[in-house]
Design a protein that fits this description.
The protein is an alpha/beta fold and 223 residues long. Helices cover 24% and strands 29% of the residues. 48% of the residues are buried.
């Protein structure tokens, strides 16, 4: 269930979705938080990596979706939660998804399964720095989707901007995205702006241990 991807970076395979753990120079960082039914597996995974869930200092959320924020309110930590500016009011409960959009309608239908976290929700914008991570706005899958890249850890957390399929990256598809044109634009923009990284860690599929930025470049060039 837990695989070390690089020095200080771990993959927590929750079955239907991934989350990640990174020791960012002593600041333990959880990336995404699975479904509402994954809290026990997340806590066990953190222990397998050699930590306690109470050690988590911050949570980086790539986007608001049932399978990426579901366990936030069920995990016993005291950590700031960072999420893209457009998704922050959905996570905090201050606003509701846009039911006029097919993806927003699905988010609205699954909203009763979610509880807003008690911890501080920090809205993130493009270019924000959180420890060694730089936040990149990558809208499309959701309006506030963010990717987080750490040059020192050599890792990019890509959320659901892309999926791994048989060893290749594919864009988030129409059925699960607010705007597929925005997805394509975000992939091209992200590839052009990030430093090179080895580990590409996405929300679904098997992470790449090497040449992650090259895999992203190949996808961007094909769009």
């Amino acid at each position: 269930m837990v695989t070390q991807l690089a020095d200080d970076v771990w993959w927590l395979d929750l079955g239907s979705v991934n989350c990640y753990l990174a020791d960012d120079d002593g600041d333990l960082t959880l990336v995404d938080a699975g479904t509402p039914f994954d809290s026990g597996d997340i806590m066990r995974g953190v222990r397998e990596a050699g930590y306690s869930i109470n050690d988590v200092d911050r949570v980086l959320i790539t986007h608001y979706d049932l399978d990426h924020v579901g366990s936030l309110a069920r995990l016993p930590f005291d950590a700031s939660i960072y999420v893209g500016e457009a998704d922050a009011p959905l996570l905090s409960g201050a606003d509701a998804p846009d039911w006029h959009n097919h993806k927003g309608a699905f988010q609205l239908a699954t909203r009763p399964l979610l509880s807003s976290p008690d911890e501080e929700v920090v809205a993130v914008v493009d270019g924000d720095e959180i420890g060694s991570f730089t936040a990149y706005a990558t809208p499309g899958h959701s309006p506030g989707h963010m990717a987080y890249v750490s040059e020192s850890l050599d890792v990019a957390f890509l959320g659901d901007l892309v999926f791994e399929d048989h060893g290749k990256l594919t864009p988030s598809a129409w059925a699960m995205s607010y705007d597929t044109e925005a997805v394509r634009d975000s992939i091209v923009s992200l590839e052009s702006r990030t430093p090179d990284f080895e580990v590409a860690a996405m929300g679904h599929g098997v992470p790449f241990l090497r040449d992650g930025s090259e895999r992203l470049r190949e996808l961007a060039d094909s769009l």
